Structures are given as C-alpha cells and as structure tokens.
Amino acid sequence: MTDADVIIAGAGPTGLMLAAELRLAGVRPLVLEKHAQPRETQKAMGLGGQILHLLRYRGLLERCEAATTDPIPPARFPFGGIHVDLTQLTDSPLEGLPLPQTRLERILDEYVGELGADVRRGHEVVGVDQDEAAATVQVHGPDGPYRATARYLVACDGGRSPVRDMAGIPFPGTTYPEINRLAVVTAHESVTVLDNGEIDIPGMGRIGTGFIRSERGVFGFGSVTSGVLMFSVTEDESTEFDDATPMTLTEFQDSVRRVLGSDIPLGDPLRLTRFTFKDRHVERYRDGRVLIAGDAAHLLPSTGVGLNAGMLDAVNLAWKLAGEIQGWAPPGLLDSYHAERHFAGSRALLQTRAQVALRRSLDPAADALRQVFQELLADEQPARRIGAMISGADIRYPLPGADRHPLIGAFAPDLALRTEEGFTSVAELMHAARPVFLNLADRPELRAVVREWEGRIDIVSAETEHPTADAVLIRPDAHIAWAVTADEPVETALVTLRDALSSWFGAPSKATVLAADRIG
Asked: Rounded to whole angstroms, how far apart are CA atoms 343 and 397?
C-alpha cells in the first residue's frame, strides 16, 4: 500500500508543474512543502524561454498573461554583460513574460488544486529511504512526525535540496565568488527618464541601458516601464548570506557606492534581492526510486534560465512516471528522463558558462571580446542562434531515428490545422498532455498501425499549409518521437512507426490487437 503514486518534495514552480502534469496523466501526486505558506520573497521577476510555448500548449499561458500587470518589455535580453537584441525579428526565438515568481506559484497552486492534487504545506521531508518497490519519506508536519510511501520520490526542493543530499546524490560544481544585487524601484523625483530609455541623474549625467564596469565590479541599468527602473550591482565577495534574510535598500546603495564611487537616487523599492551564481549539475537525474528535477538537478550561472529549465524537467518526467505507474512503460522509458534532461541541462550550462567568461573578466582583452561578441550579435543569424540557446528552443533530443527527419527530437511547431470537425492547432491538441498521432496526408496504412495503441494515443487526421512531414507522432511533452516524409517507402515507414510506438508507449493494447485480428 502506498500513500500516493509519486511524492514530490517542494512546491515551487517545478514541483507544482510536475504535480499538474501527473494529474493530467491520471497519477496521484503528494506534494510536501516545508514552508507553511507560499513564499512572498521574490526570486525570479519573469518567465521566459521554451516553457512559455509549453504553457500555451497546456492552455495555461492565458492565465499567466492575465496575472501580468506590467507591459511585455522589448525582446532585448542580457547575455554575459552585453545584450542580445531581438526586437527586429518578426519571430523571436526568445520571449519573456514579466510575471513574478510569487504570482506564477499562485497560478500553479490554484491549477493543481483544480486538478485534485494533494499539496501539504508546513510538511518537511527529514528522511528518505527506498527499496526495489517504493520510496518512503519521514516527514515533520504540523501535527507531528509521520511516514509516507510512494512508488517514486522526486526532489524539487531547490539548489540546496535536502532530499537530494539524503538520497546520496552528488551535486558537483562551482560557486563563483561574487554577489549579485538587484533592485527594481520607482524613478526618484530627481531622475529624468528620457524617451530613449536613458536616465538623466543630477551630478552624473546620462546613463543608458547596459553595464558600467569599474575595478570594484559591474553596475547595470535597465528600464522596466516608464516609471519603474531596474538596477543591478555585481561585486566579488565571499560573504555567505542566508536566503531567508532579505536585502535592504541601504545594502544595495552601499554596493552601488563601492562600485561606482557615488550614490544613485532611488525611489520606492518594488523588488530587492541578492543571489550568487553557481555552476552545478547532478551526474544522474535518477537513483532508483528517487529522481531529481529543477534547481535540485542544476544550478546555472546566469539569470533568466533556471525556471525555464526546471519546469521543462517536470514536463519531460511526468508522462514517463505515469507509464511506469500505470504499467504500460516500455523498458528504459524512465531512464530516458536522465538522458534527455541531462543533455538539456548540459546545453543550458554551455551558454551560461559562456556568459560567465564574458561577464567576469575586466581586463582590456575581455573588453575586446565583449565588443566583438556584441558586433556579431548585430547580425540576424548569430542573434537568432544565441536567442534559441537561451530559450532552450534549440533543444533537439538525440532520439532514435533522428537522422531520418529533422523534426524527430524537436519541439512540435504549433501548426494551424483543418479537421473534419473544424479548425484547431497543435497547441490545442496538446492541452490534455496526451500523445498525438497527427496524420497530415491521409495515409490510412499509418493510421491502421497506430490504432493498435488506440486509447493510449489520440489519432488526428488534419490538413495544414506547407507540411514538412506526412505524419508525426508527438509525445506528451510536445517533442516529436517520429516523423515521415512523403517520399519514404511504405514498408520502411510502417516499420519505423511501429518501432517508435513500442519504444515510447509500450506494447499495443491487447483488446485493440484482438479486435484488429478479428477484423482481419
């Protein structure tokens, strides 16, 4: 007997996203969060990258957009002390939504409640055990200690994850000796905000968006809205700060004074935070019945990428756990979570480590490197390439058969579709988080094969403008598991389709196979 199918440690965005995806798949999650109330301390100020497309594919993006009171800023993103300007692209590979993490967590908390997930706040996991059949946690709750057991345990409890440590999973890497302080404030009455986004400060003159370097560190400025300004300061400092100790405006002003040698007049604080940059990555995302996701699995030495990577971990993992729990998973399905998301985490580390190299050096050679890099980013293709790396849009999992079609392993594009029932889209088809076989060329021989998995896979016949494949098999995480071109022989297409179906969704349903045999 188990208390749940999956125990999730941590009710941050990764843990809540995992709980939602598990409920969509028909699995019973139990979320244990040590804090009694949702945190009010702001961490991330926005959400960006590929996760925005995934939220749209789940029908959640509109909720997030409705909770955003600030206008969406121009597509201009920091990258290692310079900027990637994507404002001239009609189809930017990187988008951002000014949604504070506290609001995001409230939206996800409401959503998992609607789906029927059990979220217990004020319940801290203090012990972890596992055997071949289940994982058991010792919990300190408001009414005292207790034990809970589930088929699997997932650590979504942050970079300092106690669950990861109790499970004995190493977290190698580096902590950089720097402190980053960020302040989002209203514009002070003495500061003039100019139409071009610059500010004019009495006694200092004009300051444009970007970075100012000194021997003591780096000062950054950016305009959030017409009356709200964002400042940052980075200093080399080895001081250890408790995450629960909030930063004060005085602390921030002192840091500005050390770096610039003068004060900056600031209005009312809207967000004050400090953080360090860490470069850490678990060597394995799974250890038996214990799995790792989000910051517990990877800490990236740059801002704006952690939430994206963590929530996408959750989406990749949920349907694979569902397959194991419901008994249809083929061998190796759950292990593919590590293979794919460790690959994605390594790609995220690649571009964030490059940002460290650009950001931290202060000599003339480093200035020259930043200048050359900035000039390269003035061209469309380099800017588009870097934007896709930051967002994770360039992730193409190295799946079997990936050499046969460029779509295999990639995130499914949101095609506009025409079906017998009317107009729809790939995004709408993915709302239920189920696998979809999309037949775009009315090939009955392919559809007949997929019918053996009917009940486990949604089968949709549709037309679209300029299709790049005759048919595609889309996994619940919206990545394409199989695709076929018009010129591929039927015999080959049928073999590779059946292999993909078996590799990702197990053996055909016995009832469906028997029915097909009777018809035959």
From this structure: 8
pLDDT in tens, 17-61: 999 999 999 999 999 999 999 887 767 778 999 999 999 999 999
If one compares 211 and 377, the residue with the highest pLDDT of the two is 377
Residue found under tokens 């972890």: 128
d(CA 111, CA 115): 6
Q: Quote the radius of gyration of the chain (alpha carbons, Å).
A: 25
The model carries a pTM of 0.91
Task: Identify whether the C-beta of residue 230 lies closer than 8 Å to the C-beta of residue 209.
Answer: no
- 279 has a pLDDT exceeding 60: yes
Tokens 């964002």 belong to residue: 230
From the number of C-beta atoms within 10 Å of its C-beta (0-12, 13-18, 19+), residue 113 rates as middle
**Does the pLDDT at position 244 exceed 70?**
no
Interior angle at CA 174, CA 170 and CA 180, nearest 5: 130
Of the candidates 410, 406, 387, 457, the residue with the CA atom closest to the CA atom of residue 429 = 457
Q: Residue 217 is inside which H or E element, if any?
A: strand 217-225
